[in-house]
Design a protein that fits this description.
The longest helix is centred in the middle third of the chain and has 27 residues, at about 125-150. The protein is an all-alpha fold. It has helices at about 1-25, 35-40, 45-50, 55-65, 70-75, 80-85, 85-100, 105-115, 125-150, 160-180, 185-205. Helices cover about 70% and strands about 0% of the residues. It comes from Microbulbifer thermotolerans.
């Protein structure tokens, strides 16, 4: 009996989260009430409070169903990085694009977070998670690019301080733009071309070369 009650409670929680995704995706995070979510889930408002403290807590739980881009990049192991840093950078972003392309729930949640999430109390915890992930992701990307330069996978004169935010911002921007216009094509296919084009840019762009230091003569 206790096991059955636990299963019922878990099922109710998942129904609430499913309903929240649909409501937040249609109307944003601020405007909808918990009553709207409860009605769509087929539960009472009190049932929501039985699982979540408030709307902010519900929203935070909802985002636990996905992995943000920078979190995926920070997963790689150190020994894997040292063997093939550029390959690690490429493969992590390709896997992210592939996951988003085939997972409709990820698409909806990421679209809510990036495009329908007003910066208010309800989104404060998520915004903090994004900011922390962003800082860690940029630092990990800098580490990967630096390691790739040291291993000869990228030009020795690459301006890493310029290349890092450019590559990071471009890849995150590709994902955010696709979420707005998924009809442009398969993100798994497009993503591979985008990643390879950006890596080619690191190799070839004169604007990403460090200026040669002038020799001082006495």
């Amino acid at each position: 009996m206790a096991k059955r009650r636990k299963e019922d409670a878990l099922e109710t929680r998942e129904r609430i989260l499913d309903a929240a995704i649909e409501v937040f995706h249609k109307r944003g995070v601020v405007r909808p009430s918990l009553t709207e979510i409860a009605q769509l889930a087929g539960v009472t408002r009190g049932a929501i409070y039985g699982h979540f403290r408030n709307k902010a807590d519900l929203f935070a739980a909802l985002t636990e169903r996905v992995q943000f881009p920078d979190e995926r990049l920070c997963e790689c192991a150190c020994d894997e990085i040292m063997k093939d840093p550029l390959g690690v950078l490429r493969s992590r972003w390709l896997r992210m694009f592939q996951e988003v392309a085939r997972n409709r729930e990820w698409q909806l949640i990421l679209e809510i977070v990036f495009h329908r999430c007003e910066l208010v109390t309800e989104s404060g915890e998520i915004h903090q998670r994004l900011m922390e992930g962003h800082a860690q992701g940029v630092e990990r990307m800098r580490f990967l690019i630096t390691a790739a330069v040291q291993r000869g996978q990228l030009p020795a004169d690459l301006a890493i301080e310029v290349a890092t935010p450019l590559l990071h911002g471009s890849l995150v921007g590709v994902l955010q733009d696709w979420l707005l216009q998924p009809q442009i094509g398969d993100l798994a296919v497009l993503g591979e071309r985008y990643v390879d084009a950006l890596i080619d840019m690191l190799h070839a762009s004169p604007a990403l070369r460090r200026p040669m230091q002038l020799q001082m003569t006495c």
